[in-house]
């Protein structure tokens, strides 16, 4: 079996500058590089936090994110990529920090099967944060 590791997730946004600011201010990502993808007509940036990366696309003439893609229960009803998820040590501590930063908390899960939450970035894209139980 070929070996591989995770490299990055990607999101499309209406404003690259606003997204670079949001990912930095709210989640602590730093700008790694900016570039233009001619074939996609996309002003693009790669942001990084340690080994984690996000590729952010501002595509000329792109359609806005449909409303049903902004909530996890309705988003899963459309085929395709859904979100990326990151592990947090404490959901409650993470939520407190995100609320202090004014982040848009879309959905919180506190169930027997697990605890986590979804944030919406500045363009409405969903990002999941999961608290893994201590074994």
UniProtKB/TrEMBL annotation:
Keywords: Metal-binding. Residues 5-132 form the VOC domain. GO terms for biological process: L-methylmalonyl-CoA metabolic process. The keyword Metal-binding applies. InterPro entries: Glyas_Bleomycin-R_OHBP_Dase, MMCE/EMCE_epimerase, VOC_core. PROSITE patterns: VOC. GO terms for molecular function: metal ion binding; methylmalonyl-CoA epimerase activity. It comes from the Bacteria. SUPFAM superfamilies: Glyoxalase/Bleomycin resistance protein/Dihydroxybiphenyl dioxygenase (SSF54593). This is VOC family protein.
């Amino acid at each position: 079996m070929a070996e591989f590791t995770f490299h990055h997730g990607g999101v499309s946004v209406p404003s690259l500058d606003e997204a670079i600011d949001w990912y930095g201010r709210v989640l602590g990502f730093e700008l790694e590089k900016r570039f233009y993808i001619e074939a996609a007509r996309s002003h693009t940036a790669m942001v990084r936090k340690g080994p984690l990366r996000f590729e952010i696309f501002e595509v000329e003439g792109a359609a806005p994110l449909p409303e049903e893609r902004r909530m996890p229960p309705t988003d899963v009803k459309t085929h395709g990529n859904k979100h990326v998820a990151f592990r947090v040590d404490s959901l409650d501590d993470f939520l407190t920090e995100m609320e202090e930063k004014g982040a848009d908390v879309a959905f919180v899960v506190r169930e027997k099967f697990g605890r986590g939450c979804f944030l919406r970035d500045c363009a409405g894209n969903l990002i999941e944060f999961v608290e893994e139980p201590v074994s």
